[in-house]
């Protein structure tokens, strides 16, 4: 029997929650996280989370260990850290025995580059049945079109765009692929979602303006910020 029959390594892309930390006031951070978890316990249960430290200062690594253990105490399922700024930060993260998920960010303000002119064209994956609680549908290298209801507790994921012609109550993650992910969009005819995410930028239900709940909506990134618009079919 070949080795391939037992195990196989493959590079895949999965959605995860990103916790952006802007300062290391430990008691405040812990209080905010606990409040969110208390409001949405089912959403945060066992969801993988990455801590982004790119907004912290080069000296904040001195307080990292205490802050990290404080975050762990909230019950978040931390799978890695991204965005470290220098080697001192890197060493502090290594001492935490936590995976480092990216290279250090550049602080050279004179650096510039032209983005590659590339547009990914996705084919469509169509689902015409209800997506029930606990179900996960992933449209790899495709747009995902749901012509029915997405229940609370369900997850719909696509490398491309997501269209829901029905009520969206669960979680929707668009643009999880690498190519042109920030150009992806999410559309639904009745918005009651637990979570909306495009290319890692996300809103949970309480972030959605109340005036948009229960109505048709379009989500997209504008200057790397998740944005919502009303739309008519």
TrEMBL record:
Residues 126-228 form the Septum formation inhibitor MinC C-terminal domain. GO terms for biological process: cell morphogenesis; division septum assembly; regulation of cell division; regulation of cell septum assembly. InterPro entries: CAP/MinC_C (IPR016098), MinC (IPR013033), MinC_C_sf (IPR036145), MinC_N (IPR007874), Septum_form_inhib_MinC_C (IPR005526). SUPFAM superfamilies: Cell-division inhibitor MinC, C-terminal domain (SSF63848). Signal peptide: none annotated. Residues 12-76 form the Septum formation inhibitor MinC N-terminal domain. Keywords: Cell cycle, Cell division, Septation. Interacts with MinD and FtsZ. Cell division inhibitor that blocks the formation of polar Z ring septums. Rapidly oscillates between the poles of the cell to destabilize FtsZ filaments that have formed before they mature into polar Z rings. Prevents FtsZ polymerization. Belongs to the MinC family. This is Probable septum site-determining protein MinC. The gene is minC.
């Amino acid at each position: 029997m070949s080795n391939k029959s037992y195990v196989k390594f493959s590079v895949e892309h999965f959605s995860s929650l990103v916790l952006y930390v802007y300062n290391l006031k430990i008691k405040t951070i812990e209080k905010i996280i606990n409040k969110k978890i208390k409001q949405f316990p089912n959403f945060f249960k066992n969801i993988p989370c990455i801590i982004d430290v790119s907004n912290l200062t080069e000296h904040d690594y001195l307080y990292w260990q205490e802050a990290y253990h404080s975050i762990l105490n909230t019950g978040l399922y931390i799978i890695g850290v991204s965005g470290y700024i220098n080697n001192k930060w890197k060493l502090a993260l290594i001492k935490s025995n936590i995976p480092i998920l990216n290279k250090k960010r550049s602080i050279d303000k004179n650096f510039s580059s032209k983005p590659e002119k590339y547009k990914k064209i996705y084919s469509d994956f169509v689902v015409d049945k209800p997506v029930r609680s606990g179900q996960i549908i992933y449209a790899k290298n495709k747009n995902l079109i749901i012509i029915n209801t997405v229940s609370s507790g369900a997850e719909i994921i696509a490398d491309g765009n997501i269209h829901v012609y029905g009520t969206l109550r669960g979680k929707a993650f668009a643009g999880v692929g690498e190519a042109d992910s920030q150009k992806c969009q999410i559309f639904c005819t009745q918005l009651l979602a637990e979570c909306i995410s495009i290319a890692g930028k996300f809103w949970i239900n309480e972030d959605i303006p109340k005036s948009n709940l229960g109505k048709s909506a379009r989500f997209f990134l504008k200057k790397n910020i998740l944005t919502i618009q009303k739309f008519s079919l």
